[in-house]
Amino acid sequence: MSRLQLALITGTIAFFYLVLAVIYGNNQYMNAEATEILKNGFAVHYLQDAKNFSDNNLLTLVISAPLRVYESVLSPLLVLILLRLGSLGFLLWALYSYVSRTTLAWTVIIYLLSPWFLYNTHFSYTSYMEIGAALYLLTLVKLRNRPESFMSYFIWSSLHILAIGWCLHFHYSGTILCLISMALMIRKILHINILGLILGSCASGFLIYLGVVAARTNTGMYITHDFQEGYPGFGITHVYPILKSVLYWLRFSSALGQNHLVLETSFNWISASEIIAQFFRIVWLAGIYIVGLMTMLWSVLGNWAAVIEAKGYVFTRNEPESNSGYLSVVSTYALLATTVFAGIAPVLLSSDELNVVFAFSLLPVLLIIDKLSEAKLSRHLLIMSLITGILVIISLFGAVESGNFNAEYNYYENASLLVDSFFN
Length: 424
Prior knowledge:
The protein contains 19 helices and no strands. Helix content is 71%, strand content 0%. It has helices at residues 3-26, 32-47, 58-69, 74-95, 101-112, 115-119, 129-142, 150-170, 175-186, 194-217, 224-227, 234-238, 240-252, 259-263, 274-314, 323-344, 358-371, 377-400, 411-420.
């Protein structure tokens, strides 16, 4: 595949993503979490000095800063979408020298059009984590071998720690990234510059501090409300949370999206007849489960192959020599870190809370695809077109009729009412 072909595919898929993401964003249900995030951001923008950022944290800054650039309630939504699109840029940068261009094209499709990725296009504490996780993966690639340039070594080390702090600011599931780094450093596969570690730790510590302060001043914030529902080690004592985290890991790289997306599409808009609507619903469920299970099989095969390739490196002193071996080790450690975190977490984790490992869960499938990248390009393009069509249809239904999204919801109107509340 040529660079021009890769650019054309990337641009086309990015366009599809932007259209779908805007539909998702404007059709989102404004639950208590989304309302709280917007109200806090609006309060900083409308009730404080425009030059005063002292009371901001990342959760308010991602709302108030866009408003200071362009006065519209659509600005924070656009920034959310662009940040998530930017995470693709970091992911492609990380994989550019590791896989073929054909695989990079597949990466764009699987990542941007994934039902899991698009379904999280709404205002929540976890929706901003993908860009931090993608940056973190990029630093793992850059720090695999100690950079010869001191400045490069210093910068990538600082960004590595900062990416962890970014994710931890939004949700404590960012701890998974800490566990991955610790495992790779113990294995001496990851090399961190001491000065970069110090600077990154200071910056990350400040971000985490801001998040904790915000949580203490607002008891409904993202950290405190989870811990009130359970206790540390909840996953170990109940076991099921660990098994569910593995299932989420496998499902992330498949077309079998969230249960809300799959099960709550009623098709009542097709016909007033309950029988006809039920018929289309059965066809929809049958189709999505068939496609979902077929792609789930690829996920299982990919993870099995990755574990087999990584087993000679994970618990030994051997260093992976091949690019695929290194990515297999990273994905295996990410899976292990996910299960460990699910065991020590205070509650049963949801898919949104585990989306910090979404990019990592795609690696085994992409490695399988990369081994088939020498096949005829026409075959790849045909299958890409088919998969793109299927994912667009699934995501479009999810955007207009599912658990958290519906054509009857209107973000612009609801957000405008929140803004009006500051002046009435």
